[in-house]
Design a protein that fits this description.
Radius of gyration: 14 Å
Strand content: over 45%
Order of helices and strands: EEEEEEE
Largest sheet: 7 strands, antiparallel
Structural class: mainly beta
Shape: globular
Distance between the termini: 21 Å
Strand order of the largest sheet: 3-2-1-7-6-5-4
Length: 94
Amino acid sequence: MCRKQYISVRAEFRSDGIMLPQSIFWTDGRKYAVDRVKKIISARSRKTDERSDRYTVEIGGRERDLFFERNPEPYERPLGRWYVEAREQQRISE
């Protein structure tokens, strides 16, 4: 089972309007550089079934999906939020 894990992202906004993630910051403070953006598509999350912009990126030589969830109100702040699909931690009952 997966859930959305909202994260901080440093992104570049190009003159053609494309937004490209440069690095991500995990909730515990770890920072990861995005080596390459391989693909950007508007698609449903494979795990949560919600529509977002899905960025297929390479981080540390591994391919990952990074999502940008747009605010449904275009003139409201924030513009949107970044998230990754994180596994739910299963609890073992004693």
